[in-house]
Specification:
By secondary structure, the protein is of the alpha/beta class. Helix content is 35%, strand content 22%. It has 12 helices and 12 strands. The protein has helices spanning 3-6, 12-27, 64-75, 100-105, 126-133, 141-144, 146-165, 194-206, 214-220, 250-258, 269-278, 290-298, and strands spanning 40-45, 50-55, 81-88, 111-116, 137-140, 169-176, 209-213, 237-242, 261-266, 283-286, 304-310, 318-324. Helix 4 (100-105) links the parallel strand 3 and strand 4. The chain is elongated.
């Protein structure tokens, strides 16, 4: 087989579809991998047939590339592996697992497509450079599909923030009724539609920590558990309660612990961010009342703002708005 044949690129539509599957695989484990980022990988043969799809599932377990290649080995298809697509630049250093570059170079893979460079300045570009120097064709999705590359950067944004700033990504979830109020009617805990409840629980699922206020706890005694979607098995989250006056009863904290939380009373949002970072959190979800929500938003302590608005007189669905305080950073690509 000639070098040109080994490095032959598959059609653009095959590459794009395969990379979308890698993104979906990573997204399924968002919230399960901290302090590592969620990463997805797909392996194709020389004709574009999918041989394996895998994701990094938990810190300390195999990374997505190594897992996908091990699936190929287990199914007897490793000798056909030609193109590997991965949402994050393969690592070239030993951590809790061996370098993914080693696994790729030990396989027949000759073409590697990468969604996002490693955001860590200390290692950025090292994986791509090593693969290229070993003779592989290394391509960036930004060259082919900027939209998919942006999706990969968005998926990586919480990890990138933690690497650069040492604190988790903060998402504020805010539900508003027709009049713009966050307060449900007396006797109710929510006014949103079933689809909005599922969205709220999806946000909880991907969060490593939840921040609320004592007023919310005293008014509703919320569980903050993931119930409307399937949660990650064995997931333990931090629950931070802003409560300077120590009004939250110890019984609530004990119940929260039995529900699988690490509850902690804190004096400030900064204290919560520091404690969450120490526990390896990538994402914090703010589910609180008007005062805490306004404080987080007005002081620039947020990264993502999800607004659920109840539609007046419409069907049983709500409108959802998503805004980002800043565009996820796009690290410079390693040149070819």
């Amino acid at each position: 087989m000639t070098v040109a044949t080994q490095h032959r690129e598959l059609p653009a539509e095959i590459i794009s579809a395969a990379f979308a599957r890698a993104l979906a695989a990573a997204e399924a484990y968002r919230g399960a991998t901290s302090p590592n980022p969620p990463v997805g990988c797909v392996v194709l043969d020389g004709q574009g047939w999918e041989l394996a799809v895998a994701a990094h599932q938990r810190a300390g377990e195999a990374h997505a590339e190594a897992k996908a290649l091990s699936i190929c080995a287990a199914t007897g298809t490793l000798d056909r592996a030609h193109t590997l697509l991965v949402t994050l630049e393969p690592c070239n250093h030993t951590g809790r697992t061996p370098p993914c570059c080693d696994a790729i170079l030990a396989s027949p893979v000759r073409v590697v497509w990468i969604g996002s460079p490693d955001p860590n300045p200390a290692v950025r570009g090292g994986g791509a450079r090593r693969l290229r120097e070993a003779g592989l064709s290394v391509r960036w999705m930004a060259e082919r599909e900027p939209g998919l590359a942006a999706a990969a950067a968005g998926l990586l944004a919480p990890f990138a923030k933690r690497v650069r700033h040492g604190v988790p990504w903060v998402t504020v979830k805010q539900a508003l009724d027709e009049a713009g109020s966050m307060i449900p009617l007396a006797g109710q805990k929510t006014f949103t539609s079933p689809s909005s409840l599922r969205l709220a629980h999806q946000l909880r699922k991907r969060a490593d920590a939840i921040l609320t206020g004592s007023g919310t706890v005293l008014a509703d005694m919320p569980e903050f558990t993931v119930r409307h979607v399937e949660d990650h098995t064995g997931k333990v989250r931090d629950l931070f309660i802003l409560d300077r006056r120590r009004r939250v009863p110890p019984a609530y904290l004990s119940l929260a612990q039995r529900r699988g939380f690490r509850p902690q009373v804190v004096a400030s949002v900064d204290d919560a961010l520091t404690a969450a970072a120490a526990n390896g959190a990538l994402e914090m979800l703010v589910e609180a009342g008007p005062a805490v929500t306004a404080h987080v938003l007005s002081n620039g302590l947020w990264d993502e703002h999800i607004i659920i608005r109840k539609n007046a007189g419409g069907p049983a669905t709500d409108s959802v708005e998503r805004r980002l305080r800043a565009k996820p950073p796009q690290p410079a690509l390693e040149s070819a």
